[in-house]
Structures are given as C-alpha cells and as structure tokens.
Design goal:
With 606 residues, the protein is of the alpha+beta class. Helices cover 28% and strands 20% of the residues.
Length: 606
C-alpha cells in the first residue's frame, strides 16, 4: 500500500501552525479544542483525514499479546488487564486527532466551551449516547466517573480530580468543570477520561472488583467472551451510538477482534507465521529483514508495511532505581551508561540499522541541543543551577564507542567515575570503602527476548569493571506488580512522548509521583527543576515559551542519567495478513498504539 508523502509534509505544516498561533479564546460552544491555536479541522468536517469514510465494516482479526491477564478492568491498579481494552470498549467526552500535536474533537460531547484563561470548561453531551447495553449515558454518569476514577481508579487518574474545584450539571446535557489550578491543559484533560456507568458501580468496590465484573462501556466494542489468561473476544456493537458521527466515521471497522495471549514473543511469532494471528508489530530492524521471509510472505498472504512518523523518540532503555544505592549517585549512573556499549550491541542485534535515542524528545522540535543552554532555555534553568546534574546547562551528550566489543574508552571513563564515587577493585570485585561489592539485578519479563539479549551482553561488559550483575526474568503479572511497587534495581523502560507534553509529565517524573505506587516515575526522579520546567510548560501562553520549557525539561532529564538509552523507532513496522487494509493518508503520529486497528478494515479479496 502506498503512502501519501504530501500528507507528511502537511503534517509538519500543521505542527508549525499550531506552534506559531496563540490560543483563540472560545466565546461560545465549539466542535473542538486545541492546546494552542484553533483545531485544524473545521466545524463541518466529515471524518478524520487519516480515516477512510468508505471503509467496509466486517471481518474478524486476531491480535497477540504476551503474558496473561487476570483483570478486564483497565481503569484500576489491581491486576493486569489487556492493554488495548480501554480504547476498544470505552469512549471519552472528546477524541484526539493523531494528525495534530494536541487537538480534541467532539465524541460523547457534541461541543466544548471554555474561557480565555481556561479556568473552566463546559461540555454538552450528544443526544442519544448510550452504554453498550442500551442504557442512556447521562451527565450523572460523567460526574460519577470523574469522582470514581479520581478516588478508586488507577493512580494516573488521581491528579486531575485534585485540580478540579467543582463538577456540576448546568443543563440537561451539560456538565461544567471549574479548576483550582492555573494549567491551560486542564480543559483538554477533562475531555479525555473514560465514562463509566453509575448504575453499574455506585456503592460497589470498583478498585477490587473480580474478573467477571467487566466495566460497561460506551465504545464500539464489547467483551463477549474470555478465558482467564488465554483470550478475550470483542464484538462490534451493532447498535453502537457513534457509528456515524464525524470523529468515528471510517474507524473501528472490524466486526470482531480476538486477543490471544502467549507465553513469550517467540511463541507469538511462531503463531503469526502459521496464520493464528492477523498482525504483529516488529521493533527490531534486523529481525524485520532476516526473520520475515517465511512462506506466507513469499506467497503474498502476509504483507510487510512500513509506517513513517514525526513524533518524538521518547525514551526506551534500562532505567535505574534512584531510590536504592548505588543508583542514588549520579556518578555511578554515569559509569553504567559509559559501560553500555551501544554501538556494538546495536550492530549485533539490529545490524546497526536503528539510530540511538539521544534525549527524551529527540527527533522533534522539542528536543534539546547538545551545546550550552542559551536564551529562554538558560533563563529557565539558571535559578536551579545548584540542583542540576552536570551537563544540564553546559551541554551533555551520550558517549559514543568505536563499535568494538571491548569498548576500552567507555570502560576507562566508567572506571574513573566509579573511583570518584568511592569504588575500587579488590580481589576482582568492585567494592565500596567498607568492602561491600557493587552488584545489582536487571528485572525483565520472560517474553521480552530482545531485552534479555541486550541485558546478557551488558552483564558481560560489567564483569570487566568488577560489577556483579544478573538478569531476573518473571512472568508479566509479576513484572507489572514489581515495577508498580518500584521493587527493582534496574529494569526495562519505555515512555512514549508526544508533540504536546503536558500534565502527564508530572506522573512520569515529577517528585510527587516518586513514591506513588503505580506511577510512571520508575527512576524515582525528585529534582525540583523537573517540576519547575513542567510548570513552565503548562503555564506557557505561546509556543516559544512552551518549546523552550520542554527543551529545558529534556536537558534535566537527559543529564540526570536515569536511563541507559537504546535505539529509537523512527518508523513503525507492521506485518499483517493481506486482507487487512489501511488508508493511504497517514497521521503525523504514524503507527501509534491505536492507529492499528482503529482505522484499518477487512477486504476479503485482499
């Protein structure tokens, strides 16, 4: 299938226009809202630009997950639920366009209104919105959902409720949120919470509900069958209320979706090769070239599609838990980064085809420069210079090895930092002054074959420094439980980031999330400069300040040396059966977590 490269250029133009415009205040209810400027699509838009409004509805696909599940409630901390479930079964007041940095359009709500200072937002529900059992979805359900999720839901939902002063019904289909915090993103965040049924959950223990109590949703799919830990079957609701609204036109086209669960990625891939799974995402460029040559591909029954994107690199790598020694010392963290021979590992595992992540927002206008901070970026950082890790203001970049297996320069640099931190080799082991050897464990999920391979090579390199490191593999449920409780020394870390970072950054690495079980702040970052840069992002009134604050945040995070970065994913790779089709026009975000299967469809003739 071909790609519309004019669309890619248009995406950059859309980003630029959003960055150059200030917020246009809404004097009356409108169809959409953007973080900066006006949404790109007009009030009378017919469908999302990357959706095919003529896509047929039908067909059945099977997608594969590794590990298992012991919950079908994706909105609470307890248990492990299929990660795709929330987007399949539940709708929000507004829906996000993946063709713009941060714009929302009416979904459950037909319109949105806010004041110029964004101290409040009011949504008007569409007529005829229902849950999947046919019961009406009302303002009462909206208010109930925000309170329930903020009190009993997953910790990622708690922060918003604390920034809401009041939620009130202001009309038969109107609900108004008034905020107690100066944060221009809040009206958008208020439009993005899943809506639950008050009739189902009022007076019940939502946080600890058993597996069989599946949350009733208003989305296009509903769970029609499951076997704990093995599969979940979802069927498209023939009475889905939103099938013809502009935001949903041409989306969610498959009649049924089955989620099958496999012990690890190797078993899942073998199942795909023999036709038991309809599509897989491949993140390793070398594997894409060498392992996707099986008979179904040679016959043309399976297609390899490459999907470009324009989003930031995000961060993928081994994260160090700074709540524990020795990772609380930046010099030790720096040494462990120096000892990680990226060029050699990358060449061995991907053929050197994938570039390294250089910062959290690299590959985008929001990424930091390696040179000294200047202008507004320096102005934001200087008040915190006494708390900043070395290199934040002066400039910091990751070490580059010569690609050989021994990485002599990296080992020398690591040794120097370890000695500065008070470690020396005695009897072949690196020890503190009290004789305690330096050792740690890398926690990984059993199914993560690539991460296990990376860790194995890294452990051998650490032996040259006298460091005793080991790899511990556990099943998915235990992995998520332990990382949620920060029960690890080092583990694999993936944080996807957008062109519109906002309040979620506090949950990712804000000090208030460092000791909050279930938060995304796995490294335990607590630097006050991080919180200040996030505040500056949220309070920015124009794009120049927003970009400067994000670049400053990128500097603090990268120089903090919390993560040993791997390679970036500059394009998506999806292998799929030939009957699965997608539009020629691609969103600027490319293959995000929802693009496939959201806008794909089934063509029996292939």
């Amino acid at each position: 299938m071909s790609w519309d490269f004019f669309q890619i250029g248009r995406g950059f133009a859309a980003v630029s226009s959003v960055i150059l415009l200030g917020f246009a205040a809404s004097a009356e209810p409108v169809h959409g809202i953007s973080m900066y400027g006006a949404p790109a699509l007009p009030e009378n838009f017919a469908h999302l630009p990357y959706a095919n409004p003529d896509a047929p509805v039908g067909g059945a696909i099977t997608l594969g997950n590794t590990g298992g599940f012991d919950s079908l409630n994706p909105f609470v901390r307890k248990g492990t639920a299929p990660w795709q479930l929330a987007s399949f079964t539940h709708e929000t007041l507004m829906g996000r366009s993946w063709d713009e940095p941060f714009s929302l359009y009416g979904l459950l709500a037909e319109s949105v209104e806010t004041d110029e200072s964004r101290q409040w937002v009011e949504f008007t529900l569409r007529e005829g919105t229902t849950f999947s059992d046919g019961s009406p979805l009302t303002v009462e359900d909206v208010i109930f959902s925000y309170e329930l999720l903020g009190e009993q839901g997953h910790p990622k939902y708690h922060n918003l409720l604390g920034q809401i002063e009041t939620i009130e019904q202001t009309g038969p289909r109107k609900v108004k949120f008034t905020f107690n915090t100066a944060n221009r993103e809040l009206p958008l965040l208020a439009g993005m919470r899943p809506i639950l049924s008050k009739a189902q959950w009022e007076g019940r223990d939502f946080a600890n509900a058993p597996l069989q109590d599946i949350p009733l949703g208003s989305g296009p799919y509903r769970v029609t069958g499951y076997e704990a830990g093995r599969f979940v079957t979802l069927e498209r609701n023939p009475a889905y209320w939103g099938a013809q609204i502009p935001f949903r036109k041409g989306t969610q086209n498959f009649a049924s979706i089955k989620l099958d669960f496999y012990a690890d990625a190797n078993v899942l891939f073998e199942a795909f090769k023999v036709g038991e799974i309809s599509a897989v995402r491949e993140f390793n460029a070398e594997s894409w070239q060498s392992q996707y040559n099986f008979p179904a591909i040679e016959r043309g029954d399976v297609i390899k599609s490459v999907i470009p994107h324009q989003r930031p690199s995000g961060m993928t790598g081994f994260v160090m838990n700074t709540r524990r020694a020795p990772f609380d010392d930046w010099r030790v963290r720096d040494a462990l980064i120096q000892a990680f021979n990226f060029e050699y590992i990358n060449d061995t595992l991907t053929g050197g085809a994938q570039p390294r992540i250089t910062s959290y927002f690299s590959n985008s206008v929001l990424g930091k420069a390696d040179s000294p901070a200047s202008g507004r970026v320096a102005e934001l950082l200087l008040p915190y210079q006494d708390t900043l890790p070395p290199g934040t203001i002066e400039g910091y970049s990751l070490p580059v090895s010569d690609g050989s297996a021994r990485n002599r320069a990296g080992i020398r640099a690591a040794t120097a930092q370890l000695e500065a931190a008070g470690y020396n080799v005695t009897d072949g082991l690196l020890r503190r002054s009290d004789g305690t050897p330096l050792g740690f464990t890398i926690l990984l999920a059993k199914g993560s074959r690539e991460n296990i391979a990376i860790a194995g090579m890294y452990v051998k390199a650490l032996e040259r420094l006298g460091i005793t490191a080991s790899v511990e593999t556990v099943d998915d449920a235990q992995f998520f439980s332990r990382t949620n409780e920060f029960d690890f020394d080092m583990t694999v870390f993936r944080r996807a980031l957008s062109l519109s970072p906002g309040t979620e950054q506090r949950f990712y690495w804000g000090a208030e999330a460092a000791d909050q079980p279930g938060s995304r702040n796995l490294m335990g970052a607590r630097n006050p400069a991080i919180g200040a840069m996030i505040d500056a992002m949220l309070e920015a009134r124009d794009s120049a300040d927003f970009v400067a604050a994000t670049r400053a945040l990128d500097r603090v995070l990268t120089a903090g040396r919390f993560v040993i970065p791997f390679w970036s994913y500059t394009e998506g790779r999806i292998a799929h059966v030939r009957q699965m089709k997608y539009p020629d026009t691609l969103p600027i975000y490319g293959d995000g977590s929802e693009w496939m299967p959201e806008v794909w469809w089934w063509d029996e003739n292939g």
